[in-house]
Every structure is written in structure tokens, then in C-alpha cells.
Design a protein that fits this description.
- The protein folds into three domains: about 70 residues, no CATH class; about 45 residues, no CATH class; about 180 residues, Ribonuclease H-like superfamily/Ribonuclease H (Nucleotidyltransferase, domain 5, 2-Layer Sandwich).
- Helices cover about 50% and strands about 10% of the residues.
- It has a five-stranded mixed sheet, with helices on both faces.
- β1 and β2 form a beta hairpin.
- It is an alpha/beta fold.
- Pfam families: HTH_38, rve.
- One of its GO terms (biological process) is transposition.
- This is IS30 family transposase.
- It comes from Weissella hellenica.
- One of its GO terms (molecular function) is transposase activity.
């Protein structure tokens, strides 16, 4: 079977000159160009600005016809795009400015296509998704809990083990139960990031540490507790030396915050914050020093992550969920205050 060859720009100009200036019929033009009559007929009648208007009112334009043919080829490579230009602009803004993932875009961007369609657009190279960066999702690591069972644990660790954590915390029923972890700089750099993660709302707070020394860790945790009074009931963390020292434990005890430690080599037991750490690493890759990172840049990253719509929250953002909790807490406090005043009166 003979392969089809597209009409060139010069052929389109010949069609225009012969048809409009020399008044040659479309069949004769097809014979001159060694094309079928249907090819020339379709080119003149359908490859133009308004196919619903006669050729006398809006004549065939070879420049526009050549551009339109190129656009149609692009669209055929993508598949038929049912997404409007305005929606594609909103998708591009969500990718480049908000750093949203494709499921977030599919559920929160107005008139956005499904996630499957967006993944197809990404594979085909649609311009709106050219700057999309795939998020890395690692396989769940194999737990070494069985390996570490033979190691003796102190009485304090056994008392505050994650096994002692109440089911109400495990099932994320109430607000105020947090996870805590550190993200280290490149090897040899003392600066690190202290991350807090609220388990129910998935709200995140990031703080910069000059080092992981006891005094710096103590001051950072105390600053966090002062910033969130009556909003921290428990903290779950790992067994790093920066969290298990006496000063930090006394600080949490003074603030009446329960602390629970995961088993050694079991990061999945605080999987929420481990997942958030990967999001943070998206902005601060491994090997980067946190020394020169400003608080403004850190706050910007925190705001971006807290405004990610999440499926587990019904595609609400952690910021919205946490603000709702704060409002309900203030309402309960005002109600309790009024009841106390009425009883005293």
C-alpha cells in the first residue's frame, strides 16, 4: 500500500493561486498536484477558519490551513483533548506554583479531567504538565523488629513503647496527637530540620535547628509547645538520642505531654511523618546543607505541604482541617467559661 504524503505549504499556495486567481477546478488542481480529488476538496472546504460559511464569504487561506494542519497533527499525537485552554492553564499553575500531584489536580482543579487522563497527558507530553515532577513512593521497608527483639530495653522504653499507645491515638480519632522526627543535612553539617506532624489533620510544622544538641532540641520543642498550647496531648517519635535524653523527657513531662517510642528499625510505625519527610526532601534533596536555608523559605515549603489536598481528608487540605479543630477548641473553651461563670453566679 502506498504511504500517504501530507500536503506541503507550497502545494497549499498552488491550490490558492490556481483556484482563486486562475479559476481552475479542484479536479484539475488534483491532477496537477498528483493528488486525489477528494484530498483537494477536503483541503479547501474543511481546512479553514469557518467550515459552516461558504467559500465566497470566507475564502481558503493557505497560511491558516498549514498552521491548522500542524495543530491537528499535535492533537492526534496527544489523543483528542477534551480539556479547555482555561483548565489547562489552571493545571499548569497548580503544577508549577502549588507543586500539586496529579490526583490533587484531578479532584481540586475546576473542570480538570480524571487522574488517568492526566497521567496520559503527562506521558504524551502535553505542555501544561511539562514541569510536573513525579513524587517518589518507596516500597515499605522490611521491619527489623524481630531482629531487635533480643536486645534488652530499658524500663523507661518499655513503659513508653508504642505498644502502650492507646487505640484512640492509633485510630486517629482525636486531634492533638503528633509525630516528631529530624531530617539531617549532608554528612558533616550540624544543621537539621525538626518536623512535627499532627496525625488526624495531617498538619505539618517545620523548624530549623542549628544542631541536634540537647539544648537546641530542648529549646525548639519548648517553642513548639508554647506555639500550640493545649493542642499537644502526645508525641510519637523514634529512639534517636536527640529525643530520648533526660532534658527533653522532663520538658514533655512538665507540659503533660505523653511520649511514645517506636521500635528500633521500624519507621513504618510512624509512617505519616516518614511520608511527609519525603515531601520535604522534594524541596530540599539529600546532600543539601540546611545551614543557608532561610526561615522564609522553610515557611513557604510548610505552607505548600499544608495546602496539599489529600484523599484521606476528603480532598481537603491539612491547613483547613487544623483550622477547623482550632475553631472548635475555642468554641468549647468559651462554652466552658460561660458555664463556670453561670455556676459561680
Amino acid at each position: 500500500m502506498r504511504s500517504y504524503k501530507r500536503l506541503s505549504r507550497s502545494e497549499r499556495y498552488y491550490i490558492y493561486i490556481w483556484y482563486y486567481e486562475q479559476k481552475i477546478s479542484l479536479r484539475q488542481i488534483a491532477l496537477r498536484l498528483h493528488r486525489t480529488p477528494k484530498t483537494i476538496y477536503d483541503e479547501v472546504h474543511y481546512n479553514r477558519r469557518r467550515t459552516d460559511v461558504s467559500l465566497d464569504r470566507i475564502p481558503y487561506d493557505p497560511e491558516y490551513a498549514d498552521w491548522l494542519a500542524a495543530q491537528n497533527r499535535i492533537n492526534r499525537n496527544y489523543g483528542k483533548l477534551h480539556t479547555s485552554r482555561g483548565t489547562l492553564k489552571r493545571i499548569q499553575k497548580a503544577v508549577e506554583e502549588k507543586h500539586w500531584t496529579i490526583p490533587m489536580i484531578a479532584h481540586r482543579v475546576k473542570n480538570a479531567p480524571s487522574a488517568a487522563t492526566l497521567y496520559r497527558y503527562l506521558k504524551l507530553g502535553v505542555p501544561a504538565l511539562l514541569n510536573y515532577q513525579k513524587h517518589k513512593y518507596h516500597m515499605r521497608p522490611v521491619s527489623m523488629r524481630e531482629i531487635m527483639r533480643s536486645h534488652r530495653e530499658s524500663d523507661f522504653m518499655q513503659t513508653h513503647s508504642i505498644e502502650q499507645r492507646p487505640s484512640i491515638i492509633n485510630e486517629r480519632r482525636n486531634f492533638g496527637h503528633w509525630e516528631m522526627d529530624c531530617i539531617d543535612s549532608s554528612k558533616g553539617v550540624k544543621a537539621s530540620l525538626l518536623v512535627f506532624y499532627e496525625r488526624k489533620s495531617r498538619y505539618v510544622e517545620i523548624m530549623k535547628l542549628a544542631s541536634k544538641q540537647v539544648s537546641a532540641m530542648h529549646d525548639a520543642i519548648e517553642q513548639f509547645l508554647k506555639r500550640h498550647p493545649n493542642q499537644v496531648q502526645s508525641i510519637t517519635t523514634d529512639r534517636g538520642h536527640e529525643f530520648t535524653n533526660f532534658d527533653v523527657m522532663m520538658l514533655l513531662d512538665r507540659w503533660q505531654v505523653a511520649v511514645y517510642f517506636t521500635h528500633a528499625y521500624s519507621p513504618a510505625e510512624k509512617g505519616g511523618i516518614e511520608r511527609i519527610n519525603r515531601d520535604i526532601r522534594h524541596f530540599f534533596p539529600k546532600g543539601q546543607s540546611f545551614t543557608k536555608i532561610t526561615l522564609v523559605a522553610l515557611r513557604a515549603v510548610q505552607d505548600i505541604i499544608n495546602h496539599y489536598p489529600k484523599a484521606v481528608l476528603g480532598w481537603k487540605t491539612p491547613q483547613v482541617c487544623y483550622n477547623q479543630f482550632l475553631q472548635s477548641q475555642k468554641f468549647r473553651q468559651k462554652k466552658a467559661h460561660r458555664l463556670n461563670n453561670s455556676q459561680l453566679a
